[in-house]
Recover the amino acids of this structure.
C-alpha cells in the first residue's frame, strides 16, 4: 500500500526534472511499437531503435507510438528531446508513484493514468502507471511492462473497425483511456465477489479471518480512492482545459468516460459504506456468540449444581437408608438416574426460561 | 447490488458507441406504441413495424413513441438512424447499468432515468432503466420491459384531462419523469414500514436476524443513493442547461420535480442516520442481555454454593448428631428444606443487592 | 417520522397542479380573517364567504388574509383564481408534506414554512405547514388548523405598536416568519431539557429505556434537520432572489432572521454530536456494569470454593479427630465459623487484589 | 450549554428591534469609560452620565467608548439614538445569546464577538458577549460585565506604545478583537492540559469518571465550535465587505487575526478527533480488564476444581487407607498440602497456557 | 502536540508586530550564510555581522541569505529594517507556532513553511518553522536551528548543476520548498513502517500497548493534517496570487510541488482511515479472546463438574461395594482413572459441540 512512497524517497535530493527511473519492474528490452494511420492508410512497425519513430512526428496522419518499459532512461530522454517535452514530464513519467494528472502545454497534453489489475495469486489489486502524451496528430504511450490492455485497440485500428481510424489523435487518446477505465470495472467486479464471500462468511460462521478480509477490503477501497479521485479530475480536466487539441466532437466521448469513472467511484464509496456495516456485523456476531455461550454456561452450572447438592447433602447411603430401601444396588441406580434426569431437565428448563429474564 | 457491473464488463473491448444490449430481461416482442396529439386532435396506434413511427417525426403535433423492450438492437438502430441520434446514446440506452444522466444536444435531449419498484417476493428494491429522448415536438421513451408506470399518463392524454395535451413535448417529458419520481415515494414508504418493523423487533426481542435486516436496509440506502444523487443532477440539469427545447413555463414544474427528488434524498439520508442508530441499539441490547445473564449466573452461583458448602461441611449425619435429633428422617427433611430455602433466599437477596455494587 | 410520505403517495397518478388536500387534520370550518391596515387606518373582519376578501386585493393599504383550515379545496381554488396563482402553488399548499421552500413569481412570492410545536402528551415534536403568499401590498397565510402562533402579531397590528403597521407587506411577511422561528427556540429548549434528563440518567442508573430516549432524541434531530436546512435556504432565498417586492429596509431584518435559523441549526447539530457521545456513555456503562459483576463473581467463586475444598477434603469428622478435639459439637462450630470467616475474608482480599491483576 | 436559548425564548412575542436585556449577570452600575486620542493628544475620562460621551462623536481624533454592563436599557437606547443606530442592533446587543456576526452599514459596522474564559471553580468554559460598533473615528464597545481583557490596550494607548495611537478606529477595532482572540489560546491551553490529564488516567487506571471527563471535553468542543466558526466568518467578513471604514493598511492585520482564529479552530477540530480516540481507548480498556478478570476466573475455577475433585473422590480416609499410611494425621497433612500445591500449580500453569488457546 | 500554543500565550498582551522570539531551541550563535550567483558567477560567504549581507540586496544576480537561529531578535530587526519588511512579518517569523501561510506584498512574498523530521529517540514527528522571504532577485530563509535540509541545494548551486543557477529567485524558492516537501515523504515512510508493525502485532498478539501505538499514530495524523492542509493552500497560493515575482516558467514546477503535497495529504488521510480500521480490529480481537476464554471455561466447568458429581454421589466406597470389587485399591484406581478420562473426554466433546450451539 505504501509502496508508492519508495519512488519519492529514492529521488530525494535530486534536482527537479532529473530523469531517473524509480519503479521496480524491469522489462527485458524496451519495445517500441509504431502505428501510423488515417482513414485509408495504415502502417505498423516495431522499431528497433528509438530514432525510427522520429519521422512519424511530421506526418499528417495519426501516429501512435507505444513504449513498453521505461527503465531505459536513454530512450526516454531521446524521445523527450526530439518531441520537445518539458523536463518535469520526463521525471514524472519515470516516477511510477505519481498521482493520475493532466498537464496541459500549448502544443501537447501530458496525462498520467493508472492501469488497475487484480493479481489472483497475491489476492490484491495492483496498479501500473501509464503515461500518455497527446500532440496534434500523435499519441505516445509509456507502459511499465508489456501488457495486453491496448491489444483490442490495435486490432480495431488494423481492421479499420470503428471511428478510431478517422477521428484523429484526441479520439485515439480517449479510446486508450477508455480501455483503462473498462479495466476498473473488472477490478470492481472482483471486489463485489469478495463482498459476497465475506457476507456469506458473516452469516454462516464469522472468524477472525473474516475480519482480516474486511480490513483488507477496506484498505483496497482506500487504495482505489487515492487513484480514482485524481483520475476523475484528470478526465474532467481534459475537456474543460479548453485546449485546441481536443475537438468538439470528442467532448461527448470524454463526458461519457467521465460518467464511467464517477460510476466506479460511486461503487467504491458504496463498498466503503458496506464494509463499515460488515465490521458492525462481525462485532455483533462475537457478542452474540458470547451471549449464547453464557446462556449455556448458565444452564449448565445450574443443571450440574443441583444434583451435586443432592449428592453432597447426604450421599447415597443416607438417602437409601431414609427411603428405606433394602436393596442397596437398585437404590443407588435409582438415585443416580434420577439425578442425571434432574440435571438434564433443569438444563432445558433454564434455557427456556432465560429469554424471560429481565 | 453489484449487478450493475455486469453490463460494463460484457462490453469491455468493444469500440465506444457499439450498439449492444447488456441487460438480462428479454421481453417477448418489442412493442411500439405511438401517441400523437395536440390540444384538439389525438391519434393512438400500436406500430407493428418500427418504420410506422417515422412519419410522426415531422408532424407539428406532439408525438410520444414508447418502446417496451430494448433487446432488439435492430429496431433501436433504425430509430437511431432515422432520428439522427449520436451513436454513444444508442450504446448508453442499451447498457442498462448506466447512471441517471442528461446529455444535451443541439436539437434533442437524452435522459437516462431509473424506475424503482419494490419486489415483494425477493423483498428488495429493483430498478429498471428508462431512456428518454426529447426533441422539439417529439418524446421517445425506451423501457426494458412493458410496465404500467406510464398508463396513468396515457389515460390523461386520451381523455384530454390536464395540461399535458396542450403544453408540448417538454411538459410531456416532465410528466413522464414526474411519474417515475412519484414511484420513488412508494419505495420510500416501504422502507418506512421496514424501519418500523425493525424498531419493534429491537424493542421486543432483537435477534441476529434483526441485525441482518438492518444491514439489508443500509445496503438499500447505499443502492438508492447511487441512483438518486445523479437523478437530482439530471433534473436540475434539464432546467439549467438553457436549452431552447425547454419552455419558460415548464421551469416551475421542473423545479417542483427537483424539490420532490430532494425530498426523497433527504429521507434516504434520514434512513441512513436512523439505521446507524439502530445498529447501536442492537449492539447495546446484546450487552444488556449479557449483563442480565451474568447477574443471574452470579446469584445462582452463590445461591447454589452456600447450601453446598453446608451439605459438604459435615453432611446430614454429623448435622443430625450435633443437633441431637433422634429422628433421622425428619432431621434429614428439615435440613434439606432449610438448604433449599436458604438457596432461593440467597438468590433473591443477591439480585436485590447487585444494583448497589460498585 | 415518515408521515410526510403519505401525502405524496395519495396523490400519485394525479396530474401536476391537481388541487387535492392530503393532510389529516380537518378543521371544523375554514375561518378567514382579514386585516387591512396602514400607519393610520385599521380594519379587521372575519369573512363568512371567501368572496369578502377579494375587494381588499386592490386597496393600497397592507392586507393580511389568514385562512385557518385548508381542507375545503373550493375556497382555496377560488382564492387561487382571484389572486391569479399558479396551479402548482395550490397543489403544494394543500400537500402538507412539502419541504419549506420559496417560489418567486413576478408579482408575488410563495413561501412554505413549518410551524414546530412540542406535543407534551405524545412527547414528540410536531410540525404544521404554513403557506404564505406575499404580493405587493397583500399577504395571505394558510394554516392547517387554527392556531395561536400569530395572535401576538394581530395584537401588535391592532394596537399599532411597532413598525408592522407602516412598513408594508414584506415586513409583515418577515414578522410572520419571525414568529414561526421564535417557536423553534421553544422546541430547542425542550430538547435541551431532555438532554439534561438523559445525562442525569446516564450518570445515575442507565437502563435500556435511557437508550430508547437517546434514540428518540436522535430521530428528532433527523426530523428537525429535514425541516431546518430547507428553511435556511428559503429565508436566504427571500433576500437574494432580488425581487422588487422586498424593500431594501427589510433586508437587515431578513438577515437577522437568517442568523436565528442558523442558530437553531447549529444547536441541532450540537445535539447530534452530543447524542452520539451519549450512546458511547451508555455502551460503556454496560461494559462497566459487567466488569463490576465479574469482579464480584470472581471474588465469590474463590470465597466459596476454598472453604468448600476444606469441607470436602476430609469433612468435619476427620478434622475433629485429627485436631484431637474431645468435644464434637464445639469442634464442629469452630470449624464452621472458621470456614465462613475464611470465605468472607477471601472475598474482600480478592476484591482488593483484583485491581493489581494484569 | 443550552443557556443561550434562554434569551431567545424570553423575548418571544416581542416585536423585532425591541430593546430588552436578556442576560443574567447584572453589573452594579453601568460604567462608561471614554478614551479620545490621536498620535499626539490623549484624553481619558469616566463618564457619570451617558450624555458626556456625545461630544466626542464629532472630534476628528479617535474615540473609544467602553460600556461595562448592558442591563440599563435606558443608557443603551440613548447611545443608540445619538449615534443613529438601527433598532435591530440594539436588540442584538442586549440579547447576549447572539452568534458572533458582522453587520455592515453605510457609516458604521456592528460586530458581535465572544470573550472566552475558563472558570476554574466550575471547571468549565464561559463566554461573554462583546458588542463593538466601529464608525469612521469612533469605536464603542459593550461588555456584559466589567472585565480586564482590554486593560492592556488601555495601557498601550496611555503610554503611546505601538501603532494604536496613530492608526485610527479600524486598527483600534482590530486590536480589541485581537485581544479577544489571544484569550482563546488561553482556553485552548486549558483544554490541552485536560487532554493530558485524561490520557494519563486512561493509561494508568481508567474509571467511569474518566469517561465523564472525555464527554465533558467533547461538549466543550461542541460549544467552542458554535462560537468559533461564526467568529471566523465575522473576521473574514470585515476585510471582504469592502467597507471604506477599513483602510488598506489594516488588511494585513485582519488577515493575521483570521489566521489566528483558523489556528484555534484547527486545534478544536484536533481535540474533537483526539477525544473520539480516547473514547475508543476507554472502551477497550474495559474490555481488556474484563479479559484479564476472565483469565483469572478461568484459572481459579480449574485450580479449585481439581483438588476438590480429589477431595470429593474418596476423601481423606479412603486415600490414607489406600496408600497404606499408618499415621492418620501425617497422611491428612500430606494430602492437604499436596492438594493446595496442586491448586496453586494448576493456577499458574493455566495462566501460562491461556495465551496459546485458540 | 499542544506545544504550538505556548508561543501564542507568551506573547499575549503584546501589541501586534512586536518582535519577540517565542521558540524554545536556542542555537549557539546565529549563522548567516550568503550565496550570490547567476549562470556564470558564484560567490559564497559566511557573514560575521548581519550588515555584510546588505550589499547583496542590490546586485542583479540571485542572492540567497540563510539565517540559522532566530533567537537574536536584534539581527532579525536589522534585516527587517534594511529589507523594508512589514512588522507583522517579523513577529510571525519569530513566533514558531505559526501555521504555514503565504503573505503577498507588492515587492516581496513572505512564506512560512514547516520542516518535518522524525525523532527516532522520542519516536515522534517534530516540526521546525522555516520562514522564507522572496524578493525579485533575493531569497532570505530563516531556520530555527542549523540543519542540513538545504545542503543538497547548496551543493547544486556550487557545482552549477541543474537549472537553479540560471532561473532566478522564484525558482530558488521553489527548489527550497521542494526540499522541504521531499522530507515529508521520509516522515510518511516512517508512518508506513509503523502501520506495518502495528498490523503485525494486531494479527499475532494485540496488547493494550498496540492500542496505545494506534492512538499515537492517530494523533500524528492529526498533527500532520494541521500542517499539511495550510501548506497546500500556501503552495497553491504562490501560483494563483498572480504576483509578478513568479515567472510563467516556474508555474509548472509549482503545480508539480502542489501535486506532491496533495500526494502526502492523500496518504495521511489514508493512514487516518486505516488507523480507524485498526481500532476496530483491536476491539474485536479483545472480544474474540474473551469468547475463546469463555469457550474453555464452559468446557472446563462441565468437564470438572461431571466427575465431581460422580465422586460426590456416593464416593469410592459405595461404588466399589456396588460393583462388587473385592480389591479395594484397584477399584479405587479404576474409578479414579475413569473419572479423569471422562473429564478430559467431556472437555473435548464440549469444545467440538460448542460451534453448533445456537
Amino acid at each position: 500500500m505504501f509502496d508508492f512512497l519508495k519512488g519519492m524517497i529514492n529521488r530525494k535530493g535530486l534536482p527537479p526534472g532529473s530523469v531517473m527511473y524509480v519503479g521496480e519492474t524491469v522489462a527485458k528490452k524496451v519495445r517500441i511499437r509504431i502505428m501510423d494511420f488515417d482513414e485509408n492508410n495504415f502502417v505498423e512497425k516495431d522499431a528497433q531503435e528509438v530514432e525510427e519513430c522520429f519521422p512519424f512526428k511530421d506526418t499528417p496522419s495519426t501516429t501512435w507510438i507505444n513504449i513498453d518499459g521505461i527503465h531505459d532512461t536513454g530512450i526516454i530522454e531521446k524521445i523527450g528531446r526530439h518531441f520537445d517535452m518539458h523536463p518535469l514530464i520526463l521525471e514524472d513519467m519515470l516516477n511510477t508513484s505519481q498521482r493520475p494528472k493532466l498537464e496541459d502545454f500549448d502544443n501537447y497534453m501530458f496525462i498520467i493514468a493508472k492501469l488497475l489489475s487484480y493479481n489472483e495469486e497475491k489476492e490484491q489489486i495492483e496498479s501500473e502507471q501509464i503515461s500518455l502524451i497527446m500532440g496534434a496528430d500523435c499519441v505516445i504511450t509509456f507502459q511499465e511492462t508489456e501488457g495486453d490492455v491496448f491489444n483490442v485497440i490495435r486490432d480495431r485500428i488494423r481492421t479499420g473497425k470503428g471511428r478510431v481510424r478517422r477521428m484523429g489523435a484526441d479520439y485515439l487518446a480517449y479510446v486508450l483511456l477508455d480501455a483503462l477505465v473498462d479495466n476498473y470495472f473488472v477490478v470492481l467486479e472482483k471486489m463485489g465477489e469478495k463482498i459476497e464471500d465475506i457476507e456469506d462468511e458473516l452469516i454462516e460462521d464469522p472468524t477472525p479471518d473474516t475480519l482480516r478480509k474486511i480490513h483488507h477490503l477496506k484498505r483496497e477501497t482506500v487504495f482505489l480512492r487515492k487513484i480514482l479521485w485524481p483520475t476523475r479530475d484528470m478526465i474532467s480536466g481534459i475537456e474543460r482545459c479548453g485546449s485546441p487539441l481536443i475537438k468538439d466532437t470528442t467532448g461527448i466521448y470524454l463526458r461519457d468516460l467521465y460518467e464511467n469513472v464517477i460510476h466506479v467511484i460511486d461503487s467504491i464509496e458504496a463498498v466503503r459504506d458496506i464494509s463499515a456495516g460488515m465490521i458492525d456485523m462481525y462485532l455483533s456476531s462475537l457478542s452474540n456468540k458470547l451471549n449464547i455461550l453464557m446462556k449455556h454456561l448458565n444452564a449448565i452450572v445450574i443443571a450440574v449444581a443441583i444434583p451435586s447438592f443432592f449428592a453432597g447433602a447426604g450421599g447415597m447411603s443416607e438417602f437409601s437408608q431414609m427411603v428405606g430401601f433394602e436393596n442397596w444396588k437398585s437404590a443407588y441406580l435409582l438415585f443416580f438416574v434420577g439425578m442425571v434426569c434432574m440435571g438434564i431437565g433443569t438444563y432445558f428448563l433454564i434455557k427456556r426460561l432465560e429469554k424471560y429474564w429481565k
Chains E and B do not touch (no CB pair under 8 Å). Residues 19 and 73 of chain E are 7 Å apart (CA to CA). The first helix of chain E runs from residue 4 to 10.
